[in-house]
C-alpha cells in the first residue's frame, strides 16, 4: 500500500526534493536558534561589546529572512506537490468511473462515489504533502535537539530523555483512538452525501408526497450521528491537547529545577541553562508533529484505500484484447441462445433466439418485468450475456470495441436524461464535433425549430438541471434531435412516447418513424397502437419469446398478443 502511495511522487521528484530540502534546512535553522542564544548569553553579553551584539543580531536577522523564504517555499511548493498528486488521482478515478459498467452503478450509491472523487482525495493530498516531510523533520529535530542538549549538559539531557516514553505513550494512546474515530467519521460523511444527494435529486417527489417531515427526520438522524462522532473526536482531541500541554509544562519545570541545581553547583552556565530550556521545546515539538501526522495519516490512508479499491474494481465489461473497431454496420442483429440474469440466482432471459433483419423495425411487447428492456440493454453491452451470443452483421458484439459498437446504436429513453447546459449543447451531445448547421438541421427534423425560435435565447437557452425547464414532449424531441445528429444504423426506442398527450405523441411518432427510416429499430412498447406498423412484433413473457409475427398474424393467432390487444382496445 505504501509503495503504491509513493509511486505517485515519481513524476514530481524535483518538486519533492526541493520541498524536502527547504523543510530540512528550515528545521536545522530552528535547531540552531537555542545554541545562538546560549552563545549570546555566555560569550557576547559578558564582553559588553555592542559591536558584537549588533553584529550577532544582524546575523540572526539574516537567518530569520532565509528561514522565512524557506517556509514560503515549503508552504507553496509543498502544497503544489500535494495538489498535483491529488489532481492526478482525481483524473484517474474519474477516468475509471467512465469504464465501470451498469452493474457497478446498480450497486453503488452516487453520494459515496462523489465523496471518493472529492473529499477522499483532498485528504490524500494533505497526507501526500505533509506525511513524509513532517515525519522526517520530526525525527531529525528530535535527535538533533537531543544531541545538542547532550553537548550542553549530558546529565540534564538524560533526565529529559527519561520522560520521553511517558509522553510517547500518552500520544500513541490517543492517536489510535483518533484513527478509529476518523474512520467512523468517514462513514458518516458518506451517509450524509447519499442522503443529501437523494433528497435534493428527488425533491420533486419529496414535495409531491408532502414527505418533507419524513425527510427531515431521516436527515436529523444522520446529522445527529455525525455530530456525535465528531464530538467524540473533539473529546479525544481536547484530552490529548490539554495533556500534552500539561506534560510540556511539567517537563519544563523539571528541567528548570534540575538546571537551577546544576547552575548553582557550577556544572551549567547561564547561557547553557536558557539554551537548554529552549532546546527542550524543540525536542518535544516533534511529538506534536507526530501527533498531527497520526491525525491526518489515517484519514489519508483510509481515503487512499478507498481510492485503490475503486481503481482496482475491474470493469466487468471492457474491450477484449483483440477487439476490432466495428465497420460501418448495416444492422442485422441476431440473438443466439442468449441467457442472462442480473443476479446469479434468477435468470431473466433463457435461451433467446431472435433475428432482426437490417433496416427493419421490431417491437417488443409483453407483461411488465418480462425482460423487454433487458433484451435491448444487452445489445450495446450495458450488461454482458451469461450464455449464447449476440451478433451484428455476423460479428459477435464482444469482439468489437465498446466505443465503435455503442457509436452505432442510438437510444431514446422514456426518461430522457439531459444535461444542465443549453439546448445546443444537449443536441450536440449526439455528436460532439457537429457543425452549427448540422445541429440546426437535427433540431428541425425533430420538430424543435418552432419551440427554439420562440425562445428569446434560441439555441442558447439554458434548460435547467436535467432539463427541468422543458416539457416531457420537448425533452423527447431533444432526445430525437440528438439521434438525428448521431445518425446510428441501429436504434433502441424505449417506450419513448408513452407519457405524452395524443397530439404530441402523434407528432413525435412521426419524427420517430422518420428517424427509424433505414435503421434497424428495436422498440420497447406498452401502447400497442404505436407499434402496429412495426415489421415484426416480438411478444416476451416469463418463459422467453412467446410468439412473434406481424400485427394481423398475431391477432389471428389468439395467443398472448391477442389477449394484450384485447385488454388495451377492448375488442
Ligand atoms: N438493474 C437491474 N438489476 C437487477 N434486476 C433488474 C435490473 N433491471 C431490471 N431488473 C429485473 O429484471 C426483470 C426484467 O426487467 P425489464 O426492465 O427488462 O422488464 P420489462 O419487460 O422491460 O418491463 P417494463 O415493461 O415494466 O419496463 C425484472 O424482474 C426486473 O426486476
TrEMBL record:
Membrane topology, record value: Multi-pass membrane protein
Classification via Pfam families: ABC_membrane, ABC_tran
Keyword Coiled coil: no
InterPro entries cross-referenced by the UniProt entry: AAA+_ATPase, ABC1_TM_dom, ABC1_TM_sf, ABC_transporter-like_ATP-bd, ABC_transporter-like_CS, P-loop_NTPase, Type_1_exporter
Ranges of residues in domain ABC transmembrane type-1: 17-299
GO cellular component terms attached to this protein's record: plasma membrane
Record localization: Cell membrane
Membrane-spanning ranges: 12-33, 53-77, 158-176
Domain ABC transporter: start-end pairs: 333-567
Keywords tagged on the record: ATP-binding, Membrane, Nucleotide-binding, Transmembrane, Transmembrane helix, Transport
Example of a GO MF term: ABC-type oligopeptide transporter activity
Keyword Hydrolase part of the UniProt annotation: no
PANTHER family: ATP-BINDING CASSETTE SUB-FAMILY B MEMBER 10, MITOCHONDRIAL, ATP-DEPENDENT PERMEASE MDL1, MITOCHONDRIAL
Entry similarity comment: Belongs to the ABC transporter superfamily.
Protein name: ABC transporter ATP-binding protein
Amino acid at each position: 500500500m505504501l509503495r503504491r502511495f509513493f509511486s505517485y511522487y515519481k513524476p514530481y521528484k524535483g518538486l519533492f526534493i526541493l520541498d524536502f530540502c527547504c523543510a530540512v534546512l528550515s528545521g536545522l535553522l530552528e535547531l540552531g536558534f537555542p545554541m545562538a542564544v546560549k552563545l549570546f548569553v555566555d560569550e557576547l553579553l559578558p564582553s559588553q561589546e555592542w559591536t558584537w551584539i549588533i553584529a550577532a543580531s544582524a546575523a540572526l536577522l539574516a537567518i530569520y529572512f532565509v528561514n522565512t523564504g524557506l517556509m514560503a517555499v515549503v508552504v507553496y511548493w509543498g502544497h503544489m506537490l500535494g495538489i498535483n498528486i491529488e489532481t492526478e488521482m482525481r483524473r484517474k478515478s474519474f477516468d475509471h468511473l467512465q469504464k465501470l459498467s451498469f452493474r457497478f452503478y446498480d450497486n453503488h450509491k452516487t453520494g459515496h462515489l462523489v465523496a471518493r472523487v472529492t473529499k477522499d482525495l483532498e485528504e490524500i493530498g494533505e497526507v501526500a504533502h505533509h506525511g513524509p516531510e513532517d515525519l522526517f523533520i520530526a525525527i531529525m529535530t528530535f535527535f538533533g535537539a537531543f544531541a545538542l542538549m547532550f553537548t550542553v549538559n549530558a546529565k540534564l539531557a538524560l533526565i529529559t530523555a527519561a520522560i520521553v516514553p511517558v509522553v510517547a505513550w500518552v500520544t500513541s494512546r490517543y492517536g489510535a483512538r483518533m484513527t478509529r474515530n476518523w474512520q467512523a467519521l468517514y462513514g458518516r460523511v458518506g451517509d450524509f452525501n447519499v442522503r443529501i444527494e437523494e433528497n435534493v435529486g428527488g425533491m420533486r417527489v419529496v414535495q409531491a408526497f408532502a414527505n418533507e417531515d419524513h425527510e427531515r427526520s431521516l436527515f436529523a438522524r444522520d446529522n445527529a450521528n455525525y455530530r456525535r462522532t465528531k464530538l467524540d473526536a473533539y473529546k479525544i482531541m481536547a484530552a490529548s491537547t490539554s495533556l500534552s500541554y500539561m506534560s510540556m509544562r511539567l517537563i519544563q519545570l523539571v528541567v528548570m529545577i534540575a538546571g537551577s541545581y546544576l547552575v548553582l553547583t557550577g556544572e551549567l552556565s547561564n547561557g547553557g541553562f536558557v539554551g537548554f530550556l529552549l532546546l527542550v521545546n524543540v525536542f518535544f515539538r516533534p511529538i506534536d508533529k507526530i501527533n498531527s501526522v497520526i491525525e491526518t495519516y489515517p484519514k489519508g490512508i483510509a481515503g487512499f484505500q478507498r481510492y485503490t479499491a475503486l481503481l482496482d474494481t475491474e470493469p466487468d465489461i471492457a474491450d477484449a484484447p483483440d477487439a476490432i473497431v466495428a465497420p460501418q454496420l448495416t444492422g442485422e442483429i441476431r440473438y443466439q441462445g442468449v441467457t442472462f440474469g442480473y443476479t446469479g440466482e434468477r435468470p431473466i432471459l433463457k435461451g433467446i433466439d431472435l433475428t432482426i433483419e437490417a433496416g427493419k423495425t421490431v417491437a417488443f411487447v409483453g407483461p411488465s418485468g418480462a425482460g423487454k428492456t433487458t433484451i435491448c440493454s444487452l445489445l450495446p453491452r450495458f450488461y454482458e450475456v451469461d450464455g449464447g451470443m449476440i451478433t451484428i452483421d455476423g460479428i459477435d458484439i464482444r469482439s468489437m470495441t465498446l466505443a465503435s459498437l455503442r457509436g452505432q446504436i442510438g437510444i431514446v429513453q422514456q426518461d430522457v436524461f439531459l444535461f444542465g447546459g443549453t439546448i445546443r449543447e444537449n443536441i450536440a451531445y449526439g455528436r460532439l464535433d457537429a457543425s452549427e448547421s448540422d445541429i440546426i438541421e437535427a433540431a428541425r427534423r425533430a420538430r424543435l425549430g418552432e419551440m427554439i425560435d420562440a425562445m428569446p435565447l434560441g439555441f442558447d437557452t439554458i434548460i435547467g438541471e436535467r432539463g427541468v425547464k422543458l416539457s416531457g414532449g420537448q425533452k423527447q424531441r431533444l432526445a430525437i434531435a440528438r439521434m438525428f445528429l448521431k445518425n446510428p444504423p441501429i436504434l433502441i426506442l424505449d417506450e419513448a412516447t408513452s407519457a405524452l398527450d395524443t397530439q404530441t405523441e402523434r407528432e413525435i411518432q412521426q419524427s420517430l418513424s422518420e428517424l427509424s427510416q433505414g435503421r434497424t429499430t428495436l422498440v420497447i412498447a406498452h401502447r400497442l397502437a404505436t407499434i402496429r406498423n412495426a415489421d415484426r412484433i416480438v411478444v416476451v413473457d416469463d418463459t422467453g419469446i412467446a410468439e412473434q409475427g406481424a400485427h394481423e398474424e398475431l391477432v389471428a393467432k389468439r395467443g398472448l398478443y391477442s389477449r394484450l390487444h384485447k385488454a388495451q382496445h377492448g375488442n
